[in-house]
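Supplementary Note 3. Input sequence used for the single-chain structure prediction.
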Amino acid sequence: IEWILAEAGATPAAYGFCTNGIWLDSLAKIGSGLVTTVALHSHSKEQTDLIMSKLKRVGDKYHIGVGSHWQIKDGAFILITHKEASKKSAIEYIQQKLSITKEETMGIGDMLNDLPLFEASGLKVAMGNGDQLLKDKADYISPSIDEDGVAVAIREYVL
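The predicted structure, written as discrete structure tokens, is reproduced below.
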């Protein structure tokens, strides 16, 4: 954790750690708990880009996902987890356990951290309010989350 924070430098607006399912905001509070996620917060796209440029070496050892910040319009959460802890790995695990194929899987997302999900999904659905890069990779663009886009996609393709 100290290495990740050192690599990020002073660029994140804030950070936190998920330890034993509880989010903490200080290294001193971690104790002997198992840290599963490090979250770096940004307040703007420029700040996110700067943080990501500083984390290049971290990306060789860990999985880095970028998601929208629900409280800050242009902000982001940069989540750092175990290398295999991605939405792609999770969906592939579920596919194996349920004996279903990629073609039988629909992935619905709105942010860049959903790109790995799309890699493992036969049908790729982007939310109308989602990131443009994700929309460019989608097979279908559903209405926004405020317009019940997930329900629309399920009604259209599952039911």
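The chain has a mean pLDDT of 89. The longest strand covers residues 35-42.
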